[in-house]
Description:
Layout: H1 5-26, E1 51-55, E2 69-76, E3 81-87, H2 91-106, E4 109-113, E5 123-137, E6 142-156, E7 159-174, H3 178-205
Parallel strand pairs: 1-4, 1-5, 2-5
Antiparallel strand pairs: 2-3, 5-6, 6-7
Amino acid sequence: MKISTGKFNLIRPAMLLAITCMLFTSGCARYARNVNTLYEPAATIRSGSGDIYIVIPESQQTRSPDIKWVLGDVRNDDNKKIDEILSPRSAAEILQAAFGLEFKRAGYTNLPVTKRTGSEQNLIDLTKTVIELEQISDLADIKAKCRVTVGIDVIRKGQLIKRLEYTTASSKTDIKDRDMLVSAVLQDALQSIMIKAIPDLHALFNR
């Protein structure tokens, strides 16, 4: 049986094009739908000691592994929403964990709680926790943006001594490691917050 090489040469690129279109349509390898919320401490304070309670609202605690929190959107190059960015932890839990790791590295014992404790305790109450993620997915590359805002009531020995608020943003563009890009901008934004906040909090607790 003879095979026409001319027809075969036409079929092969057509098949490749069809497969490529299917991958793009399905979103395979185009962007990350789930964000990795593991945090690496970045602040340089090392002289802390004692207990610090870190408070978030009980409503922001994840009660089931089946719960997913929406932290942002995925959009195409026409700015149309095509998906959501999901996290196994709420924005409050992500920030509580990040502060906890930073305080531990600085020498404190961190204690995550959902309400303010007794009058002799030192604590930070995370009164505002916002994480806004966005991915723009197109044929050439992928862009990711993150904005983080945290409001903090600082309690020293049971007394409110300061109200603080920090906001930072991060953005990246890449054509590789698409599944890690949104996690990278979240990490950068969180670290920028901590580099500012931890020295301030350390100074307030040790004045």
